[in-house]
Design a protein that fits this description.
Elements (H helix, E strand, L loop, with lengths): L1 H8 L5 H22 L5 H6 L6 H12 L2 H14 L5 H4 L3 H17 L5 H9 L1 H34 L3 H49 L2 H10 L14 H4 L4 H23 L1 H8 L4 H17 L1 H14 L7 H6 L13 H9 L4 H36 L6 H26 L5 H25 L5 H23 L9 H22 L38 H18 L1
Helix pairs in contact: 2-10, 2-19, 4-10, 4-14, 4-15, 5-16, 5-19, 7-13, 7-15, 7-24, 8-9, 9-10, 9-19, 9-20, 9-21, 9-22, 10-11, 10-16, 10-19, 10-20, 13-21, 13-23, 14-15, 14-19, 15-24, 16-18, 19-20, 21-22, 21-23, 22-23
Protein name: Sodium:solute symporter family protein
Organism: Amycolatopsis acididurans
Membrane topology: Multi-pass membrane protein
Length: 566
């Protein structure tokens, strides 16, 4: 079966496609080499010396999230579930990104912490810091492995390179530019990669829509297909959540995805927050996720729609294959929903455009993996090694260690790539990881930031038991004790983790002693002077179009209109 699938998926790449790919790789490595000149301290390597403008960090913020897992995973979701997948953007991203910019960045940036776990250290002490540092490091290795598996699979199927060669070549390129230039190299490459990804996917969407007879042609084909008209409206999204009841489906989307999973991911995930921390001012740090929200709201149109087109035009994903795919068994041809984008590229794109599309996929992979690596090396170096192993070494020691750790993380990601390979839809895998790691962390964060009474013991115990409850829900679903198809299991696990974390934190808080109030200034909202949370409005931060609150309001209105329209 797999041999047949590989033969069917092989793209007819020619010399011009390879020249475009080679040029792209030279450009990426060149950016890494140039960024190295700016790296003289560990702060330069891990946080770009806090010197980057908001438009650069804003685009990097989105590109870091627009990895191959996102691009391939969301197109797989588009093929399988249709327009309800847009909830991952309009409900499951933008409100949380705006909240991060307006409410949480002043705490992160103003306290001058170097990472999210370091914020946990100051608010809750060492046990919570260590739990968060270790769980975050593990999550990054698992997610980097998923990115690596996808890329290797793409290169193997498109170009015919053996899987192990694809994995090693891809890993070495990302490792080289991340180890050379640190976060600056990752961020500048992410800005380049954002434009390459759009240049790859926009023509694919336009050509695909032309092939099916425009939007109305796509509507007609999907309405008459196995997915039905339900896939053409984002609400209530029953196929996506796995709930039969419209009310439960909407509740799961709004609370499970829109609140717990989304806010947990965007507001506490250091992969994203690190980009904003690299900004040159408080205002720029606040604007980073808000600027990112504008392109983010339109990404569904170039990621989900190609998946929907593939579902009704690509032979391997149509008709008799649908039932096998729904059951997660792959189609008789060996294809899975993860292949939707590749199959569409195979069918629609001529040479030259094909080279750009392949570069776009490689770009999305590298953006995602570089983000995971740069966040992992910062947290491991500062929050694990410096905090608990070697405390008072010179700065050059930590700079060198950061580069070594980047290499070790790459090797570990090669190992975790095989875990990702067991999932036919990688978004299922990713949402499971987020329910384990991000949902309980968000509960601890939000409670600790707004409730000054919360104690250090509550910080770590809530995290541990919240994570354990998400893993329990996952185990019960896997074992057949409860049955939640689609991504409903991840939503329920996230809600369980959040609720358990809050309950445990409250109970433990009233049984233990809080920190003195003077130690919580800058870490708890009610104890922090309002002036220190306000962004500058003069100099480089002057102008109405640079006001975080106003920009966030505009983004929120557009997002609400998109939810109503679709």
């Amino acid at each position: 079966m797999h041999v047949l699938a590989a033969a069917n998926l092989r793209l007819d790449a020619n010399a011009i496609d390879y020249v475009l790919l080679a040029f792209y790789f030279v450009l990426v490595l060149g950016i890494g080499y140039l960024a190295r000149r700016q790296v003289s301290t560990s702060l330069d390597f891990f946080l770009s010396g806090r010197s980057l403008p908001a438009w650069v960090t804003g685009l990097a913020f989105i590109s870091a999230n627009l990895g191959a897992v996102e691009v391939m995973g969301m197109s797989a979701n588009g093929a399988q579930y249709g327009l309800p997948t847009a909830h991952y953007f309009w409900i499951g991203a933008i409100p949380a990104m705006l909240f991060l910019g307006v409410v949480m960045m002043p705490f992160y940036y103003g306290s001058k912490v170097r990472s999210v776990p370091e914020f946990m250290l100051r608010r809750f002490g060492k046990p919570a810091h260590l739990v968060n540092g270790l769980s975050f490091a593990l999550a990054q290795i698992l997610i980097a492995g998923a990115n690596l598996y996808l890329l290797a699979n793409v290169v193997n199927l498109l170009l015919g390179w053996p899987l192990w060669v694809s994995i090693i070549v891809a890993a070495v390129i990302v490792l080289t530019y991340t180890a050379l230039g640190g976060l600056s190299a990752a961020i500048y490459n992410e800005v380049l990669q954002f434009f390459v990804i759009v240049a790859a996917l926009l023509p694919l969407t336009i050509v695909g829509l032309y092939k099916v007879g425009g939007w109305q042609g796509l509507v007609d084909k999907i309405s008459g297909g196995p997915g039905g008209a339900e896939q053409l409206h984002s609400w209530p999204g029953n196929q996506l959540t796995g709930f039969g009841s419209n009310f439960l489906s909407v509740l799961g989307l709004v609370f499970g995805l829109g609140f717990v999973l989304s806010f947990g991911y965007w507001t506490t995930n250091f992969v994203e927050v690190q980009r904003a921390m690299a900004s040159k001012s408080m205002s720029a740090a606040q604007r980073t996720p808000i600027i990112g929200a504008f392109p983010k709201m339109f990404v569904p149109f170039i990621v989900i729609i190609p998946g929907m087109i593939a579902a009704v035009t690509v032979t391997e994903l149509m008709g008799q294959n649908k039932e096998a795919l729904m059951a997660g068994n792959g189609a008789p041809s060996g294809a899975t929903f993860n292949d939707a984008l590749l199959l569409l590229m195979r069918d629609l794109l001529p040479n030259g455009m094909l080279g750009i599309a392949i570069a776009g996929l490689l770009a999305s992979f590298m953006a995602g993996m570089a983000a995971n690596l740069s966040a992992f090396n910062t947290v491991f170096t500062y929050d694990i090694w410096q905090a608990y192993v070697k405390k008072d070494e010179p700065d050059g020691y930590y700079l060198g260690l950061g580069r070594v750790v980047t290499a070790i993380a790459t090797i570990l990601a090669i190992g975790t790539a095989f875990i990702a390979s067991t999932y036919s839809n990688l978004m299922d895998y990713l949402q499971t990881l987020f329910s384990f790691f991000n949902a309980p962390l968000f509960a601890t964060f939000i409670l600790g930031m707004f409730w000054k009474r919360m104690t250090p013991h509550a910080g770590w115990s809530g995290l541990v038991l919240g994570t354990a409850s998400a893993i329990t829900v996952f185990g019960l679903n896997k074992g057949g004790v409860i049955s939640l198809p689609g991504q409903g299991a991840s939503f329920v696990a996230a809600i369980a983790a959040f609720v358990v974390d809050i309950v445990v934190s409250v109970l433990v808080t009233y049984a233990t002693k809080p920190k003195p109030k003077e130690e919580l200034v800058g870490l708890v909202y009610s104890l922090t002077p309002r002036e220190s949370l306000k962004a500058s409005t003069i100099g480089e931060d002057a102008g109405w179009y640079r006001r975080p609150g106003l920009l966030a309001g505009i983004a929120l209105i557009i997002t609400i209109l998109l939810n109503i329209a679709f």
